[in-house]
Write a structure and sequence with these properties.
heterodimer; A: 313 residues; mainly alpha; 15 helices; B: 475 residues; alpha+beta; Rossmann fold; Dna Ligase, domain 1; five-stranded mixed β-sheet; 30% helix; 23% strand
């Protein structure tokens, strides 16, 4: 496989995952503004921060309100992480690699890209944003389903897996990083109040508000949420689960190429750390430091992968 | 304007209402469909093309920058006997053209014999002097060709143009068939239509058969594209995908240690056959256009040394130049010793003084083309042009006659297309796709291009032409 192909597949998968994550973040942000304790622009600011869009947004817009933030994160072509930009970039990468992308994947991606601007405009006009967020998640699921059902289990698959799960790690870590203060609260996860809404929102942003209750049946603490999203092996969006997929993909590459790259050892080390960590120790040594380490390490892993597999020739 | 009645391929030129034999089942099928049903199928087909991304790029606007070539749902049908004759004529023609190329890049017998003017070849911008004495595998220069054919009567076929450089359109031929089989399966159970899907296997076999000699492994083949923004990019990726080979750009290739290598995820890997979809000029900046970033420095030297095969060979354009076209009948006789099976359209060569006079006097009835033009640009269709347009063209031709040829305006055959007002005849041509390597391989049918504007004779997609599925019936 060409190095350029691997690069395009990796980023195609990253941007599809990002499009979905942005929609999830917006969904939660939007939901919090509907609650009686609406935190005003603070909520939208933290959404922008989680998405890594705050600086770009503030450079363009003076006010932080629902209409402007939603338009910026959904449809702004100048914002490289808007859902529209993500779909465009993912599609451009897929189009450049039509030979590696299956027809089902291409059709799922291409039809999403074709329909999105009109669907988004209509939803904004008619004020039916929740429908739109569902739509984006459906399309992302369709793409991912097509990928899992049709792609050859060779390097094509492994590079798309790497893109998907590196992006997912980044996203989950950022959500926790921005909301970490909520998780340090000593309150029980019951009753009303701002905190409770925030906790629910974090879980909702990773589609886990119901599964969480099944996993943590007894009285739980806010930091259980952090545990669920970071260390739980059952939770498919947790850092640990994502790193298990990353290690599997890098091992798959090593096996099919008959050569071990240094990035595999790096990923195994991170996975090992997540396996042996427990939440009380992490909280002791600092949740935010831990998350920052994950984000930085994840970026370093991405560039190690790019150089090991000649993404740039 | 001369009134010529076009041959209707479905109804024939007679007065009878009965459809011609090859079209009988199609005509019955069309009549059996409620009008709205055909239009629904047609809209559905367009949706399918758009979803699968079968588009051609147009430079400029963003979302609109990928357009569909319109597809018409009524198939074009060729009888088995008609096809046999076409196939024989095409094989004779492409073998002769390749013999011609071998000759002009070696001993130049045909020029010495005075059968083709030497300056026409030597001074031609499509002639690549760097190719003199080169020995391409099997002596073939143009392995992948498209021969444009028009029909004017029941038994009258003419070759309008040869495409020996990088003919495109074959992906439309294949996707048109896919779409038709998906949309109208009943049509294929009542007609015995020769399949076309072998094309990509044939292409791969052809490319493998011209790999450099003495390889001790299966040859590695790549398709070389100028990139995403090229108008035929879809086709490039389509062909690479169907053959199971890498689609590369110049930046993915490098010449090192006397070998052509591609940059893969596992380091450098040797490449043996390059099916290039970039022009000669851009192949190698060390030999041709020094500003080219699309090609690979050092590629041409490797080719000359027989270390890699370039398909089609550099310099293959000399066989499809419009000024050479007039001489193709002579070329066929010269190399095969037989008269051509397929005729050329009579062509006036404006560089000959007597023919120039005729062209200037009769321009309103002629089609005038630039020798180096393509895609339907820079041409005049006399009968459908205004007096002012004709006068303007006369001035151009009189100033630089060597740049122009002219042909009588042919009454191209028609096939019905589906319009808002029901079926209506439109002019068509035909581009069969030819492969030449260890064997001559010809896919039954080809791409039918159709002028969707009523009365128009220009079928090029850049000028609003569309395409049809093209059937060769088996006996």
């Amino acid at each position: 496989m060409l190095g350029r192909t691997a690069n395009d597949l990796f980023w195609m998968a990253r941007y599809m995952e990002r499009a979905e994550n942005i929609a999830r973040l917006l969904e939660v942000g939007h939901r919090l503004t509907l609650l009686p304790h609406d935190g005003g622009d603070a909520e939208w600011r933290s959404t922008l921060r989680s998405a890594g869009c705050e600086a770009g947004y503030l450079a363009r817009h003076g006010v932080v309100d629902t209409r402007t933030v939603v338009a910026y994160m959904l449809l702004d072509r100048e914002n490289p992480s808007s859902v529209l930009s993500c779909l465009m970039t993912a599609r451009r990468n897929a189009r450049a690699q039509r030979t590696a992308v299956t027809r089902d994947m291409w059709e799922a991606l291409n039809s999403a890209w074709m329909a999105f601007p009109a669907v988004a405009e209509a939803a904004i006009q008619s004020n039916e944003l929740p429908d739109l967020f569902d739509w984006i998640r459906d399309r992302s699921a369709l793409f991912r389903g097509a990928l899992l059902n049709t792609i050859l289990r060779n390097d094509t698959f492994w590079f798309t897996q790497l893109g998907t799960f590196l992006e997912r790690v980044d996203n989950t870590a950022r959500i926790l990083d921005v909301k970490y203060y909520v998780l340090l609260s000593e309150n029980e996860l019951v009753g009303g109040g701002v905190d409770s809404a925030q906790w629910a929102a974090i879980l909702r942003s990773v589609s886990a508000h119901r599964s969480f209750r099944w996993v943590y049946r007894d009285a739980f603490k806010p930091w259980h949420i952090a545990d669920f999203l970071m260390l739980n092996p059952q939770m498919p969006r947790s850092l640990r689960s994502s790193y298990a997929e990353i290690v599997a993909a890098l091992s798959g590459l090593a096996a099919s190429y008959g050569a071990m790259a240094p990035c595999l050892a790096m990923a195994e080390e991170t996975l090992g750390r997540l396996l042996v960590s427990d939440m009380s120790r992490i909280l002791q040594s600092g949740l935010q430091e831990f998350l920052q380490d994950v984000i930085v390490g994840n970026n370093r892993l991405a560039s190690e992968i790019a150089s090991a597999y000649h993404f740039n020739g | 304007m001369k009134s010529t009645v076009a041959f209707d391929e479905m109804r024939g030129s007679g007065k009878g209402k009965r459809p011609r034999e090859p079209y009988r089942a199609v005509a019955a099928w069309v009549e059996g469909q409620p009008g709205a049903e055909l239009r629904r199928k047609s809209a559905h087909a367009e949706q399918m093309f758009r979803r699968t991304g079968i588009t051609f790029a147009v430079y400029g606007a963003e979302q609109a920058s990928e357009r569909l070539i319109p597809f018409d749902i009524i198939p074009r049908v060729i009888a088995a006997a008609e096809w046999r004759r076409l196939a024989a004529g095409i094989e004779q023609r492409v073998r002769a053209l390749n013999a011609f190329m071998y000759d002009v890049y070696h001993r130049q017998e045909i020029l010495r014999a005075g059968r083709v003017p030497a300056d026409l070849v030597i001074q031609n911008s499509a002639f690549v002097p760097e190719m003199m004495g080169a020995e391409p595998p099997r002596g073939i220069y143009s392995h992948i060709m498209g021969i444009d054919i028009v029909r004017t009567a029941e038994n009258e076929f003419f070759v309008l143009e040869d495409n020996t450089r990088t003919p495109s359109g074959v992906s439309y031929m294949l996707e048109n068939r896919e779409t038709m089989m998906h949309m109208c399966p009943d049509l294929f159970s009542t007609n015995r239509v020769a399949p076309v899907e072998r094309y990509t296997e044939d292409l791969r076999a052809t490319l493998e058969s011209v790999a450099p000699a003495h390889l001790d492994r299966e040859p590695t083949i790549v398709v070389l594209t100028p990139g995403l923004h090229n108008s035929a990019y879809f086709e490039h990726s389509f062909l690479a995908d169907r053959m199971g080979v890498e689609l590369v750009e110049g930046q993915d290739l490098v010449v090192t240690g006397g070998r052509l290598m591609m940059k893969t995820t596992q380091g450098l890997q040797q490449v043996d056959v390059v099916y290039r979809r970039i022009d000669d000029d851009f192949l190698d900046p060390l030999v041709f256009n020094p500003d080219s970033v699309l090609g690979v420095p050092g590629l041409f030297d490797l080719y000359r040394a027989g270390r890699v095969t370039i398909v089609n060979a550099p310099g293959a354009g000399i066989a499809d130049d419009k000024s050479i076209y007039c001489y193709v009948p002579e070329i066929i006789e010269f190399y095969t010793g037989r008269p051509p099976i397929l005729q050329n359209v009579h062509t006036y060569n404006c560089r000959r003084p007597d023919e120039l006079v005729y062209v200037l006097e009769n321009m309103a009835e002629l089609v005038v083309k630039e020798v180096h033009g393509s895609g339907g640009y820079g041409m005049l269709v006399g009968p459908t042009s205004t007096r002012a347009q004709v006068e303007l063209f006369k001035k151009k031709v009189a100033t630089t006659p060597e740049k122009y040829i002219a042909q009588p305006t042919l009454a191209l055959s028609t096939v019905p297309v589906l319009t808002d007002e029901g079926l209506s005849p439109r002019h068509v041509d035909l581009r069969p796709f030819v492969l030449l390597g260890d064997k001559f391989r010809l896919t039954p049918g080809g791409l039918t291009r159709v002028a969707l504007k009523k009365g128009s004779l220009v079928v090029n997609s850049s000028q609003g032409g569309g395409t049809k599925d093209t059937w060769v019936l088996e006996e």
